[in-house]
Structures are given as C-alpha cells and as structure tokens.
Amino acid sequence: SRLAAPRHFLTGEEIDGATLAALLARSRVLKQGRRSGSPKPLAGRSAALVFERPSTRTRVSFELAVVELGGYPVVLRGDELQLARGESIRDTALVLSRYVDLIAVRTGDHAKLEELARHASVPVVNLLSQQHHPCQALADLLTLAERFEELRGLPVAWVGDGNNVAHSLLLLGARAGLDLRVATPPALAPDPEIVERARAALESGGRISVGSDPIAAARGARALYTDVWVSMGREQDADRRRALLAPFRLDERLMRNAAEDAVVLHCLPAHPDEEIASDLLYGEQSAVWDQAENRLHAQKALLEFLLANE
Ligand code: CP
Ligand code: NVA
C-alpha cells in the first residue's frame, strides 16, 4: 500500500505509527544493502542543507544520505545566506523552492522552521531546533529495533535534561509504543504540551511517565538514554544546569537498576564523565556508535519517503 507522504518533517508528528514502522523497516533494508549499491530515488534531485549551528553527525550523514540516494546536496552555513543579512525567511523559502526538491535546516527557534515550511513548496526537514530533533529520534528507534526487535512496550529511560532530543523521543517513541520513563530535574522537565501531544499519540502497549527520580525510571529499563546538560543556545545557563543535573548522571549506579541486557544511548556530542560515565559510553553496553551510524540509514529512508510522491 502506498503511504501518504507528508510535506514536511518538523516534529515527527507528521507521521503515524504505521508509517514510522515502515520507515524503520526500510532503514534496515537500506543499511543491509548499503555496500551493494543503493537505489537512486533522488536521481536528478537536489536538497539544500542549511546549518545555522554546528554539527558533525547531522551534517555528514545528511550530505551522504542525499549522495548515496543519487541526489545532489547543496550544503550551506547560515552565515553564507542572505538570510543572515536580513533577507526574509519567506523569500528564502520561495527562492530555494525554485531550485531544490527539499530544504533541511538546523536552527534555533522552531518557529523559524514553521515559517519556512509555510512558504516552501518543497518538503522541509528539521535538522534540529531548540525544541525538536526528529531525525535523531528515527535513528534512536532504529537502534532499539535492531537490538530488541519489538518496540511496543519496550521500557526506555530518559535521564537528564528534558530537551529537544527528549521531546522528539517522546513524540516518536509514543508512535512506536515505547514504555518511556522520563526523569529530569523539575526545573528542566520536558514541555508539558509536548508530553500531552505524545500521550495523545501513544500506540498500543505504549506508556509515558514523567518524573524526577532517575533510579525509578531506570528500574528494569532496556535502554538508558541521556544527552548533554548544556544544549546549543543554553550556554548562559550552564552552571545552574550542571548543578541541577548532577544527580542525573548516567553511571554505574543507574545501570545496576536497569535490565541485564540494557544498552546506553546518547545522541552525541558527549562530555564523558559529565552526563555519562566514560566506562558506559565506551563499554560493551554502549549502543551509542550504532546510534550515530543509524542517522545515515534512517535519514535515507526518510528522504526516500518524503520525495516519493513529490
Ligand atoms: N546528534 C547530533 O545531531 O549530532 P550533531 O550535532 O553533530 O549533528
Ligand atoms: N540537545 C543537544 C543535541 C545536540 C545534537 C543540543 O541541542 O545542543
């Protein structure tokens, strides 16, 4: 059956559980077949990849995803665009839409992406905003699916900052039916509106709990996931965050409460021995490097999907 293609991928809420499952399955096929020559659904097509903030994984994996699917990526730093000199988002969207088949952007304020998407006539993809990182969540779920096969009811703990990566894990994890336990300091809890939206999208078997007890969240979990304590754009608040987040370090003490076969996840970049113990990051239970690799495979499936019906 042909899946209905959304125009954009800004928060992950554009896709339902069945579409998500299909994307993850397709990611695994593309991963398997990577060395034997990918299909070229992007042949003759192009994508603008705009980075207003630094990036290692997203930058490299997206450019390669477009190339491996036969397309042409135009990678731009924010400061190269006239946008940086005051050209409007609207005009930027209208012009880029005349050149490329897809626009992907890493920026700060999520509202900028929404404005771009309103005016673009090609799909717009969020490469991270202050509020969301949906491409990361696709790779996270792909990594969990590879390890555990069944995502429905899989207990996964998020410990640390209730940030963009947590928001996307909530919104897409709900669509996968995860048993998500989020533990953050109360002052750094995920946006309650996003939690509500995630709850409203829960697939059967899924559950979402939000609290501030990392041990309770970790108990019996098959994956423990954390992220940096100071995200891009939050630097002015660094000291307060480090103090609040110290009890949420992903370390052996938390790991002892998790399931025996539990993995640790981190979207990277990491600060070893700050938010995550280096023994865990580099240890046998780390799925972090698969998670980083899986950005590429998941994004290829996403690109193929977004451009399929265009
Ligand atoms: N996880 C992630 O998005 O990494 P980059 O900031 O390096 O792209
Ligand atoms: N939460 C981090 C993720 C980086 C990939 C940030 O927004 O900086």
From TrEMBL:
Matching entries from InterPro entries are given as: Asp/Orn_carbamoyltranf_P-bd, Asp/Orn_carbamoylTrfase, Asp/Orn_carbamoylTrfase_sf, Asp_carbamoyltransf_Asp/Orn-bd, Orn/put_carbamltrans, OTCase_ArgI
Q: Which NCBIfam families match?
A: orni_carb_tr, PRK00779.1
Please give an example of a GO cellular component term from this record. Answer: cytoplasm
Q: Which Pfam families does the entry mention?
A: OTCace (PF00185), OTCace_N (PF02729)
Where do the Aspartate/ornithine carbamoyltransferase carbamoyl-P binding domain residues begin and end?
7-146
Indicate which residues the UniProt annotation says bind L-ornithine.
N164, D227, S231, M232
Keyword Transferase applies? yes
Q: Which UniProt keywords apply?
A: Cytoplasm, Transferase
One biological process term in Gene Ontology: citrulline biosynthetic process
Per its record, the protein catalyses: carbamoyl phosphate + L-ornithine = L-citrulline + phosphate + H(+)
Q: Give one GO term, molecular function aspect.
A: ornithine carbamoyltransferase activity
- Its main subcellular localisation, reduced to a broad class, is cytoplasm
- Cite the EC number: 2.1.3.3
Q: Which family does it belong to?
A: Belongs to the aspartate/ornithine carbamoyltransferase superfamily. OTCase family.
Q: Which residues form the Aspartate/ornithine carbamoyltransferase Asp/Orn-binding domain?
A: 153-305
Source organism superkingdom: Bacteria
Does the keyword section mention Transferase? yes
**UniProt-recorded name of the protein:** Ornithine carbamoyltransferase
Q: In which pathway does it act?
A: Amino-acid biosynthesis; L-arginine biosynthesis; L-arginine from L-ornithine and carbamoyl phosphate: step 1/3
The positions annotated for binding carbamoyl phosphate are S55, T56, R57, T58, Q82, R106, H133, P134, C135, Q136, C267, L268, R295
UniProt-annotated location(s): Cytoplasm
